[in-house]
Design goal:
about 170 residues; Pnp Oxidase, Chain A; mainly beta; 11-stranded mixed sheet
């Protein structure tokens, strides 16, 4: 939740503070979750270091469709793109938007001041599809719709319970 000062800063036409995207990509193919931030310098937030990378993202809108977004990440390390594209399972994605006012910009890597609260967060998202080339990885993410999952998983069929179906 934003404070009144943060809300006023966001509503101004000009601001000295930048909005920073903190992205976490967690997948079994990675030894540790990949953490990147939309800036040219690294940041430390919640004790974790976020590597500088200029990635793009689209915020979720209030449309009638499923909650869905697209994140475009530079494929500087070809390992990242290959892991996402060839993965047999979905990667978990988190995106948090914070203000640069929440960080000490005089040090490298940038360190948090106090306990920053994200202005916007996408959590519990998973990769749905990925398009990877030499330049970037474009990843479509969405929240898994558990209402579309088959239930119950074990069904009473003639093959499984022949005595019931005589």
């Amino acid at each position: 939740m934003t404070t009144a000062a943060q809300q006023a800063d966001l509503n101004r036409l000009e601001s000295g503070n930048a909005l920073l995207g903190f992205l976490i990509v967690d997948h079994e193919a990675f030894a540790t979750p990949q953490r990147v931030v939309t800036d040219v310098l690294d940041y430390v937030w919640k004790g974790e270091t976020y590597t500088a990378a200029t990635f793009g993202y689209r915020l979720i809108d209030d449309g009638d469709g499923d909650p869905r977004s697209i994140i475009t990440i530079p494929n500087v390390d070809a390992e990242f793109g290959r892991a996402i594209e060839k993965a047999p399972s979905r990667a978990k994605i988190e995106l948090h938007i914070l203000s640069s006012a929440d960080f000490d910009l005089s040090v490298d890597p940038r360190e948090q001041i106090g306990t920053p609260v994200p202005l916007y967060s996408l959590t519990e998202f998973e990769t749905v599809e990925a398009t990877v080339d030499d330049i970037s990885a474009e990843v479509t993410i969405e929240i898994r719709d558990y209402a579309q999952e088959p239930w119950p998983v074990t069904r009473a069929t003639a093959d499984r319970l022949p005595g019931v179906f005589r």
